[in-house]
Amino acid sequence: MLQDGQRPHPGPDQSSGVAEAGVAPEPHFGHHARILVVDDQKLLNRFICRTLQNDATCYSAHDGESALAMCREHLPDLVLLDVELPDMDGYRVCRLLKADPRTRNIPVIFATGNLDPDDEVKGFEAGAVDFIHKPINPAITRARVNTQLTLKRQIDALRRALAMDGLTGVANRDAFDRELASLWDQDARDGRPLSLIMVDVDSFRAYNDAYGQAAGDTCLQRVAGAIRGQIHRSQDLAARYGGGLFACLLRDTDADGAASVAATILLAIRNLGIERAGPDADGIVTANLGVATAIPSPGTSPDALIAEVQRYLGIAKSLGRGCMITAADAV
């Protein structure tokens, strides 16, 4: 069992983070838009990048495998993709991007010298949003690229709004469930650990009854901010699970790393100093935490991970206020 303040507060390089609202990172539009140009003709790549230099930062790839790797690593705002590549055709690249939850929302514009309508149909069926024909016309290219960037900005804003808990600004329960299922499948393929922290504001219902709903809302907003402020990586997720219960998903984070992150959350909530009176209170709002880690296996579900972290949270709550329980503590 860990009580408040028993672990040092790790720096940003020691902890995992949480994206605000728990959804896709804020898009990089205008001069900060990121476009991946994929073509095996290096001179054409450079020409396209020069054409778009006032609208975006461009990156180049010259084959399908490199394009897929760069999309997974950098999540560009748009991909301008040649149909004919040395290792695989652009249609296959597009289908693979759309099949991967990490990259499926990146719009793809095909560039091709072929004017056959059947090929365009094939491209749209693969998931493309538009076609640009070679030889490249700079004005048309810029116009079509900017149209798709504008649409992506609007769609991303809508996705963030739908995934956000309206009160606290972190992800809502639906977004958490979707992200957990997605990360579980990805980490099962990659063999990487996935950690889950559950944070329960101590006796929140009693706090709400004693101080009123407005004070309760403010309390939850401040607690959510404390959670979000302790973890920094964009691939992780903070969510409101329900009532005064929050959950954090930490990708590629082992048990020790998750315990360090949880310890900082525990201390940050106590350091808010939210006043609380009553015979069973110690003057401020605290929280209990459960922390669990798993390496997902193909064909399994995350239900066991949720059950485990809820069991640890239950143990923490039975021990009093401001407690944290991990697998190591529960042995």
TrEMBL record:
Residues 192-329 form the GGDEF domain. It catalyses: 2 GTP = 3',3'-c-di-GMP + 2 diphosphate. It is an enzyme of class 2 (transferase). SUPFAM superfamilies: CheY-like, Nucleotide cyclase. Residues 1-24 are annotated as: Disordered. The modification 4-aspartylphosphate is found at residue 82. NCBIfam families: GGDEF. SMART domains: GGDEF, REC. It comes from Azospirillum oleiclasticum. This is diguanylate cyclase. Residues 34-149 form the Response regulatory domain. Transmembrane segments: none annotated. InterPro entries: CheY-like_superfamily, Diguanylate_Cyclase, GGDEF_dom, Nucleotide_cyclase, Rev_trsase/Diguanyl_cyclase, Sig_transdc_resp-reg_receiver. Its EC number is 2.7.7.65. The lineage of its organism: Bacteria, Pseudomonadati, Pseudomonadota, Alphaproteobacteria, Rhodospirillales.
